[in-house]
Amino acid sequence: MRIRNRGEVEKNELNMTSMIDIVFLLLVFFVMTFKIVEMEGDFNVRMPLGESSGVIDETDLPLKLRLRADANGQLASMSLNDIDLGRDFVQLRSNVLSLVGNSAPIEGDEGPEIEIDSDYNLRYENVINAITAVSGYKDGNQVVKLIEKIKFAKARR
């Protein structure tokens, strides 16, 4: 048996208006509640200038951190003021803590400064780990700042 009056086929469409509203509400919620962790990006980086001229004051010399890379770009060794530290970033932090201390800088004093001298092919993650180790650490809920002034020597090839 064949039905001749079939009529028009009804289309079922999904109403997207309410879905779009919900997506925007969620987006606004996450943007408004996003908190940046205090340790992230909490260091001042001073890039090296070109050729410098003038006399360097011996009392104002920064700490020198030397990062050496192997042929694959991995960290081979590091030294802080010519003291070999191997590849241990915890040892680096403890040496910086012993040299700098964890007292706040005096008013008007910019605090200690460190110069990072790394090989050209050293992987970026090792440089970031070194910056993290010398800039400070988190003790419970309190952030202990060590060195905020960080500058880089010219990369060695």
TrEMBL record:
Pfam families: ExbD. The keyword Acyltransferase does not apply. The chain crosses the membrane at residues 20-37. It is found in: Cell membrane. It comes from Novipirellula aureliae. This is Biopolymer transport protein ExbD/TolR. GO terms for biological process: protein transport. InterPro entries: ExbD. Keywords: Cell membrane, Membrane, Protein transport, Transmembrane, Transmembrane helix, Transport. Belongs to the ExbD/TolR family. Its main location: membrane.
